[in-house]
Amino acid sequence: MRLVLLALVIALTGCSQPYAFHGTRLEPPLTLPDFELINQDGQTVRLSDYRGQLILLFFGYTHCPDVCPTTLAQFKRVRAQLGKQAERVRFIFVTLDPERDTPAVLKEFLATFDPTFIGFTGTTADLEAVWKSYGIYREKRVEGSTYFVDHTARIYVIDARGNLRLTWLLDANLSTDDLVQDIQHLMEG
Fold it and tell me: Domain coordinates of the chain in residue numbers?
């Protein structure tokens, strides 16, 4: 009888293991201030307009030579792998380069990855407030006749209630499967 009880305790303990996220989980979730910017269609929108959906938020710029297009390609794979569940997720790209990233430029750039991706731009002052609230590092680096923007390479995952729940730091060890598993777990909870 004792062996049966011990086996039952071990089995129940094994089933109650918490889910291990592939990114940095914020516990308790963090409520960040809402913000208002301009989307790729030139309309004023608020982040809270997407409440009720899971948001994957990334800060980048359209002239980025590496991490931004890589991230958007990853978003495209995640969206495809989610299938019908992707209807409950919004992929939002906030510019770090308002001088070049007009709504039209954002729209054309994002459409090369997925026309459902959403781009935000605005005045430098409006964007600086958003960057600050998310702790975004951003620095212009001039090279010859052009410039690049060194920046934070992190994806912010905001739940349907508008709380920051998880962040992913992009690196070679983070796969599409990892992101999809985390997203599906958040959608279940």
Answer: 2-188
Q: Which fold has domain 2-188?
A: Glutaredoxin (3.40.30)
pLDDT tens-digit readout, 20-64: 889 889 899 999 889 999 999 999 999 999 999 999 999 999 999
- pTM, full prediction: 0.89
DSSP one-letter string for 128-185:
HHHHHHTT--EEEEEETTEEEEEE--EEEEE-TTSEEEEEEE--TT--HHHHHHHHHH
Each residue's pLDDT tens digit, 8-31: 444 444 556 788 889 889 899 999
**Do residues 182 and 21 lie in contact, with contact meaning Cβ atoms separated by under 8 Å?**
yes
- Tell me the C-alpha distance between 74 and 179, whole Å: 9
